[in-house]
Design goal:
The chain has a single domain, classed as Divalent-metal-dependent TIM barrel enzymes (TIM Barrel, Alpha-Beta Barrel), CATH 3.20.20.150. The chain has an eight-stranded parallel barrel, surrounded by eight helices. By secondary structure, the chain is of the alpha/beta class. The chain contains eleven helices and nine strands. Helix 6 packs parallel to helix 8 (about 230-240) and helix 8 packs parallel to helix 9.
Length: about 325
Amino acid sequence: MSRDGLTRRGFLGKAALATGAAALAGCETETPDTKGGKPLNVRYGLNLLVYTVTFSKDQLDLIPKVADMGYDGVEIPFNDLSVLDAKATREALEKAGMGMMACSIMPPDANPCSPDAAVRQAAVERLKRMIDITAEMGGEAVAGPLYSPVGYLTGKGPTEEELKRCTEVLAAGAACAEKAKIPLAIEPLNRFETYIINTVDQALKMVKTVGSDYLTVQVDTFHANIEEKDTAASIRKIGKQWLGHIHASESDRGVPGTGQVRWKEVFRALKDIGYDRWIMIESFAMDIADLLAAACIWRPIYESADGLAKDGLKFLKEMARTA
């Protein structure tokens, strides 16, 4: 999807990175637990894919809009890296008092599992570039299916050689992430979107093989609803050390709380492990044909994007209080 040349960019200095981290320090939201348990100390964010597939200077007004809804931050789609304006985005985030992280896919010409060494090198360069841009924006992490292009299927499961190649690319990305203090979080997708990592067990095996604190697991409740036997048990299995990110997505990608995801169990598991990072609502804009096709959405799944964002946040905060 990206038209970016994937050129290497130098890493920011330690002072700039420290400034970015400091800007995020005040974003944490402690949700009281009405059951007398430990409060859930998290930040709530909205993935901007509910409004746009690419985020350029023209979409900066989304940041204060989402802030006014009561969110602590946004998740910015890093699909086409060439349209991102890191400086302007950082200024908008700081003005609105918002935190940020990135979400991204890997395009076919930057496939970490490819037998072509040049394609794998392009994958490493893309990971490095996304980390650099996130640091420039004052962001916190890069998440998504960073191990394979979405929708790329071979008709069989991953081979040992494919997994080995992928591990090497992610290890290189994790080394870069550690230098910049910008963690990566790999997201298991359902079997209809990838064949490389579908489950928490597969993701955990990958991150433990790499062995870096800067490569973690992301759980998306939509995908987990398909692939996991028990999403809450999977969260506990990952534990606080390796759980790097949460996508709060309903079973039909509609408004959280209107489908089959067992939200109370999910939030109780998050409390049990002491999760204290981002919970981002993810859904998709209903007026972007290419995005809907990629997500295999063929019918309306919510009444309005603003309604999904507002009602979803209210529901998640209620779950955090009562689960």
